[in-house]
Amino acid sequence: MSGFSSEERAAPFTLEYRVFLKNEKGQYISPFHDIPIYADKDVFHMVVEVPRWSNAKMEIATKDPLNPIKQDVKKGKLRYVANLFPYKGYIWNYGAIPQTWEDPGHNDKHTGCCGDNDPIDVCEIGSKVCARGEIIRVKILGILAMIDEGETDWKVIAINVEDPDAANYNDINDVKRLKPGYLEATVDWFRRYKVPDGKPENQFAFNAEFKDKDFAVDIIKSTHDYWRALVTKKTDGKGISCMNTTVSESPFQCDPDAAKAIVDSLPPPCESACTIPTDVDKWFHHQKN
């Protein structure tokens, strides 16, 4: 068990919906800044934003205080990814590694593009469908260098250390061997997922080839360095909220009472008895409108 928990505010699939994270004491924290990047030696924490097979585009709200998870909005409408044939929604548990940041002011030497201004993304390939807001521990296996509308957008491939088959996966070649076609499907998905919204196909560095574990870990470590500069105000975040409760060298650190006041100012938690449409229902409604 990670010791972290989550709390939903307002109803899912609404503009007001938020998922806040708590530590083992039940105190509100930032999943961006307060969850350590490392869970153990060679093991990283992952914040699950989107469970596998779901369509709602959820993400850490980098500009909101305490950075809760919320559904992405474009032109006033909630965003859903299309079902790209033959896939259903996201084809992995999708999320981010905390305490990382792809700096938009840094031109990446591998891609020739600057960072996308978000924590680094992770595709977790294990057998369990994780929950939104769940914090899991993952082994890094490799990485894909995507270029999204001119921005560097690394996609880390990882597996939950609690997965029954985790011991069999130690590098990207193990994925190729044990899950034939999965990496090709991953490239295909990322290449085309914005096309139904009228966007061009995404591009990739390295001819869309996955780099190995060591390369991936080096990239993750570099984004951790960029995050450290951000949260200690050595880099201008230009609107990113660096409010945190644990980073002692950060001028943005606050006490747990201040964090609680942020959450208490929002709509109350959604009762479990609420009748909430699934994100699939919402997506079909979105497509028809």
From TrEMBL:
<keyword id="KW-0378">Hydrolase</keyword>
<keyword id="KW-0007">Acetylation</keyword>
<dbReference type="GO" id="GO:0005737">
    <property type="term" value="C:cytoplasm"/>
</dbReference>
<keyword id="KW-0479">Metal-binding</keyword>
<comment type="subunit">
    <text>Homodimer.</text>
</comment>
<dbReference type="GO" id="GO:0004427">
    <property type="term" value="F:inorganic diphosphate phosphatase activity"/>
</dbReference>
<dbReference type="InterPro" id="IPR036649">
    <property type="entry name" value="Pyrophosphatase_sf"/>
</dbReference>
<keyword id="KW-0460">Magnesium</keyword>
<dbReference type="GO" id="GO:0006796">
    <property type="term" value="P:phosphate-containing compound metabolic process"/>
</dbReference>
<dbReference type="GO" id="GO:0000287">
    <property type="term" value="F:magnesium ion binding"/>
</dbReference>
<protein>
    <recommendedName>
        <fullName>inorganic diphosphatase</fullName>
        <ecNumber>3.6.1.1</ecNumber>
    </recommendedName>
</protein>
<dbReference type="InterPro" id="IPR008162">
    <property type="entry name" value="Pyrophosphatase"/>
</dbReference>
<comment type="similarity">
    <text>Belongs to the PPase family.</text>
</comment>
<dbReference type="Pfam" id="PF00719">
    <property type="entry name" value="Pyrophosphatase"/>
</dbReference>
